[in-house]
Amino acid sequence: MSLLTALVYPQNNYPASAFEALVASCRGRGLALAGVLQHVVDAAPERRCDVVLEDLTSGYRTPIFEDRGAGASGCRLDEAALAHVAAQIERSLDCSPDVLVLNKFGKAECDGDGLIELIANAMDRNIAVVIGVPQSNLPAWRSFAGELGAELSADSREIERWSEDLRQARRTTSR
Q1: Structure confidence at residue 175 (pLDDT)
Q2: Which residues are CB-neighbours of 103 under 8 A, at least 6 positions away?
Q3: CA 54, 32, 91 angle in degrees (round to 5)?
Q4: Rounded distance, CA 82 to CA 43, Å?
Q5: Which ranges of the chain have pLDDT less than 70?
């Protein structure tokens, strides 16, 4: 069982329901979680930047994009908010979760920044990592993950198998 898994999805089609299913499946199997779920606050096209990250340990929700107004022509990632969320996640690793769920292997991670250190820290602690990877970032993901990486689709049966395999692996190693 790989400790580093990409949940691969088509560009601009974030698999929110697949991540929700993954979280529910893991919790249903008694696996402890850390990390975040991404939620769209308002799905209207002119409000596509209304995204919050829900901390899976505390339930706290943090908006991660600055609202630039109706006439703005793009999103602006709130770097300070994202750094705050990353620090919260880092602290939650001290509770030794079974799984770290991260919303996206994005541009920052492709460039070797972003959540890369957090991922490495989790793996050093033997915590399984699942991160969303848009197909356009798959080459960078594969370069980063190498032989340690696995890929998972948004198919609910595949997600169920993955979480059961992890539960079995955790049960075997905890004996």
Answers
A1: 45
A2: 14, 19, 36, 37, 38, 53, 131, 132
A3: 60
A4: 21
A5: 42-49, 67-75, 174-175
Strand pairing report for 128-134 and 99-102: parallel
pLDDT for the residue numbered 121 = 95
Sign of torsion over alpha carbons 166, 105, 120, 38: negative
Res 147: pLDDT: 94
Length of the chain in residues, anyone? 175
pLDDT tens-digit readout, 70-103: 666 666 778 888 889 999 999 999 999 999 999 9
